[in-house]
Amino acid sequence: MTAELTAFPPMSGFATVQYAICLKGIVWREGLRFLHQRERFVAALVRPLVWLFIFAAGFRQVLGVSIIPPYETYVLYEVYITPGLMLLIQLFNGMQSSLSMVYDREMGNMRTLLVSPMPRWFLLSSKLVAGMAVSLPQVYTFLAIAWFWEIQAPPLGYIAVLPALVLSGLMLGALGMLMSSVSKQLENFAGAMNFVIFPMFFASSALYPLWRVREASPLLYYVCELNPFTHAVELVRFALYCQINWISLAVVGGCTALFMIGAILAYDPSRGFLARRGEPGGGT
Amino acid sequence: MTTAEPPAVAIEGVSHCYGRRQALNEVTFSITPSTFAVLLGLNGAGKSTLFSLITRLYAIQRGRIRIFGRDVGRASSEALRMVGVVFQQRTLDLDLSVVQNLSYHAALHGIGKHDGYARAEEVLARIALSDRANDKVRNLSGGQMRRVEIARALLHRPRLLVLDEPTVGLDIKSRADILGYVRGLVVKDGVSALWATHLIDEVADDDDVIVLHQGRVLAHGSIPRVLDAAGAKDIRTAFTRLTESTDDAIEAS
To answer: Which residue of A has its CA nearest to B191?
Structure first.
């Protein structure tokens, strides 16, 4: 026995620096896991690039876009759908992070996180931040490739869009986390992805402006308006042109808070879905 | 240890239900600091449920659990800082190296990078795995993984180790090694250990034993005390008698 090992930890609360260390550790681990899954990175890029290079090119003539804010002139269809494709990366990333939480719960890794003495809300928030952080390099890599495809925003826009991406990444991650808390098995979650990702993406302003949707179906227009993904897309679209869409900011901020609180409550051992099932952190 | 020191674990009237199924029923026992206590029970006895309650994975529905006097329900952070956990399932990240797994655990306890690495080196030396520090966990044997999990549980220098069937799936030598190592921690380091198992041959003469069956504590104390309670000469017979008599009583009722 070394003298050090007998020095039991003090009984005080955690210092701010310890919270920072914990957050950094969780982000670091998520980053490492991402690096180990190169195919995940490739898939994350290929998906929007296929939309951009093939879908957008094919529909360029069919789906013309009139002058709508934040654009000050006619824009190519590829330019229009770029913010939506950036959000598509984040949407898949959020769901992927949550998928890893379901996997971790099944495999037991999640237990190591949940038995940490840090407050559970902090652990889950850190996990969320970690998932969001992993999405940022993916989005910027996509933007870099798009640059060479002559889809170029104002240079300052690439900086201005960062806070919008952080917020939208947190919102989509929180939604995924909430879903992971109610999903008992991987299979259920995969099913839920089909019911969430595609409806969210298509019933939004990611691929077509909402005025076009309203012309086709007023009901669908309202559905799209109520879809938080629409507001995340618009928030990013405006930020990319150094503008703020206040309504979208409010909706995305509100939804982030709502989903996050829901996820934290769901993972709370005393009242969450998991507690009701009798398996707050793990599978047995 | 002074006589005033609170028990390493004090479990008072703990009950837990999964829906209508009662997993634990008025479980009460305590463990003296620096002892090796064996929670002995068959599969489905409620051992893992109890561990999940001790580690705050489950909310305590009824009763109270204190770790060195700290209430898990009310002061969970303080209580959990004193606990090192080894789960029945393997919970290491297979794609990370041994030292990365340990560093991650250190961060979860608010331990900085340098201190974390120093502690990782220290615990790896203690489990004789220093040479595997940079290997991916995936490449370790089952016994080595278990040792890493124990090292991880010790990293934040807990006063109490809770181990849920840590020898499941291991060969005889690995089992003996791990058991001997944890016993050594108790004797040399003054750590308390709560070791859940269904294997009677993991019980030693000087252990404290808690016999858990169908969610109830049938006997608790030193080996002689448990033998007295069962009117048996050895722990195997005592365990069989206690559990069978309970089964008979339940069947009769």
So the answer is: A6
Q: Report CB contact under 8 Å: B156, A9.
A: yes
- Give the closest of A11, A22, A280 to B107, CB-based: A22
Answer yes or no: do A275 and B58 touch at CB < 8 A: yes
Q: Between B19, B48, B108, which is nearest A284 by CB?
A: B48
Distance of CA B215 to the CA centre of its chain: 17
Q: Which residue is it, tokens 């770790």? A: B67
Class of domain B1-82+159-209: alpha beta
The candidate with the shortest Cα–Cα distance to B130, out of B93, B98, B166, is: B98
Hey, what amino acid is at B217? V
CB pairs under 8 A between A and B: 137
A117 with B189: Cβ contact below 8 A = no
Low-confidence ranges of chain A (pLDDT < 70): 1-12, 61-66, 103, 105-108, 183-193, 268-284
Q: Where are the domains of chain B?
A: 1-82+159-209, 97-157
Per-residue pLDDT of B97-120, as tens digits, reads 999 999 999 999 999 889 999 999
Separation in Å, CA B228 to CA B214, B221, B239: 21, 10, 12
3-state SS of chain B? Answer: CCCCCCCCEEEEEEEEEECCEEEEEEEEEEECCCCEEEEECCCCCCHHHHHHHHCCCCCCCEEEEEECCEECCCCHHHHHHCEEEECCCCCCCCCCEHHHHHHHHHHHCCCCHHHHHHHHHHHHHHCCCHHHCCCEHHHCCHHHHHHHHHHHHHCCCCCEEEEECCCCCCCHHHHHHHHHHHHHHHHHHCCEEEEEECCHHHCCCCCEEEEEECCEEEEEEEHHHHHHHHCCCCHHHHHHHHHHHHHHHHHHC
What order of strands is seen across the sheet that includes strand B83-86?
B83-86, B160-164, B192-197, B36-40, B208-213, B216-222
Given a cut of 80, is residue B169 above it in pLDDT? Answer: no
Q: Are the C-beta atoms of residues B135 and B97 closer than 8 Å to each other?
A: yes
Q: How far is B23 from chain A (nearest CA, A)?
A: 11
pLDDT higher than 80, residue B242: yes
pLDDT confidence of residue A105: 66
Residue B39: its pLDDT value, please?
Answer: 94
pTM of the full structure: 0.82
Write the DSSP string, A192-261. HHHHHHHHHHHTSSSSS-HHHHHHH-HHHHHHHHH-HHHHHHHHHHHHHTT---HHHHHHHHHHHHHHHH
What is the per-residue DSSP string for A24-68?
HHHHHHHHHHHHH-HHHHHHHHHHHHHIIIIIHHHHTTTS-B---
**CB proximity list for A43: less than 8 A, separation 6 or greater:** none
State the Cα–Cα distance between residues A136 and A169, nearest whole angstrom: 8
Q: Which of chain A's residues have a Cβ under 8 Å away from the Cβ of B18?
A: 278
Q: How large is the ipTM?
A: 0.83
Nearest CA in chain B to A13: B78
